[in-house]
Amino acid sequence: MADDDDDDRITALPESVLVHILSFLPIHDAIKTEALSKRWQFLWTYLPSIQFRQANYPTANEGLVGFVDNTLAVFNCSKLEKFGVDFDYEPHFAPNVNSGIQFAAGKGVEELFLEFDSVADDLYEDVRYELPQVLYTNSSFERLRFSLCRVIPKGNVVWNSLKKLSVGYVKLSDGVIEKILAGSPVLEVLELYNYWGFSRLDLSNTSVKKLILKEFWEGDDENDDSEEDDEDDEHDDSEEDDDNDSEEEESDGEDHDSEEEEDDGGTR
Amino acid sequence: MASSIENNNEKLTLKSSDGEEFLVEKHVALQSTLLQNMLDSDCSSADVIPLPKIDARTLALVLGYCKKHADASSSKQGELNSFDSEFLKDMDMGALFNLVLAANFMEIKGLLDIAAQKIADTIKDKPHQEVREIFHVENDYTPEEEAAVREENRWAFEGFP
To answer: Which residue intervals make up region (Disordered) (chain A) (predicted)?
Structure first.
């Protein structure tokens, strides 16, 4: 019988099935299979989805650099479905993150997530990662998720395929939110959490069907000693929990569903 | 007689590699993209669809999965999830490989995913030497080659001697 337990049945699987199996593993476990045998050496380089999460690594920060500098360079897949990083950001990692984004954008990535954590939740605005300008004009993106970074497009935003956008721990000015909405003609789901900075959110003339708002931060609380809470005033109920903050809204956008502009694609 | 089964009879016959025939309701067969395409392109007039790479034991498992998912497609997802995890529980590796191959050939995405996930779970968090033993992978690297391969992605092997 072919079921003989001593046969190397896994290596005999078709390449597409092996890559599919690898896609269920954390990236380092997938890469480690290269050492199994020669057949396995390059299988992982065909993975359609690449996610680097710090939680998986004891020495993550060096891992990130190695990952971006050595690992991404040998990827063979021609079209990337998903790329993401999730780690404790420090400013000297900016070039690595930039190369990662450049790599992913070059592979026509559809889903991108950049989640930066920080030991201190309130990593100062000016040392946060600033999204590179190249990221604002990309028509492959369908789903984007950013947290704890700076979103400051200098020119127009062009996200022609973007359907879902989720942004958290980010300051969004009125101008930025307008640019994003104007540049995302097919956006359906907009999620904002722990956000601040804008006063108006106008969804008329957009295709947004679902709006999720969580934890609006009132006032500008970073880096600004004019608004005073004594820092040692421990009993003050932490700002995020204030009354109006934890609302979650979902609007089903009855009215703008119907008025999607037909000519939007061609004439912007 | 099998030949009396008509196109519109909502049933079709599948034949395993070891010659066993399975009468399958059409809506169950539609879980398989391969069979769906065959039906769409009117190949269904053939009395029996041979599946020369899938043995009877595996095909019975596959059709059990398809039937559950076809019948329950509108019911609770939670029920299906627990069916899925029960389905593969205690399955030996040989059967699991047969299943993943069948799911791949018949293009049954849900089944392919849970079987691939199950195999991945066996690889996860283990040093590659152990993975090699579990699956009887024959190492055709020389020690020098293996060391060189590992060195290229040293960060991924950290914590794994």
So the answer is: 219-268
